[in-house]
Specification:
single chain; 116 residues; alpha+beta; 3-stranded antiparallel β-sheet; elongated
Length: 116
């Protein structure tokens, strides 16, 4: 159990945070996504999404491009190569951690409580 806890602690915390994990997972599946798509899919507020994107950009995992679609501003986000590699490593680490628990079975079915 200690090894598993050590492995869990070793997961990259920057990616492991739930909001950033959602962002990374979404960006991993597309070439790029606009800010409003990410906001809609993650359910995050504009401010919260901006903060998490800034942290991922600062780490070199996300590239943010400010452009225009016609006359309207458009913010496009994509994973960098380092971001793709970091997310792949995170997924492998999490997969190995889950496999190491030896619990590959479904949880036991709940038995109904006796009626009184």
């Amino acid at each position: 159990m200690k090894l598993q806890m050590h492995q869990l602690a070793g997961l990259e915390r920057l990616i492991h945070e739930p909001a950033r994990l959602m962002i990374m997972a979404l960006l991993y599946t597309v070439e790029s996504a606009d800010f409003f798509f990410l906001q809609r899919e993650t359910g995050l507020s504009k401010g919260n999404l901006s903060v998490h994107l800034a942290k991922l950009e600062q780490a070199g995992y996300v590239r943010i491009e400010k452009t225009y679609r016609g006359k309207l501003p458009l913010t496009l986000c994509s994973l960098t190569e380092a971001g793709r590699e970091a997310f792949q490593h995170y997924r492998r680490s999490l997969h190995h951690l889950v496999a190491a628990t030896g619990d590959s079975h479904e949880p036991p079915a709940m038995t109904p409580s006796p009626t009184r």
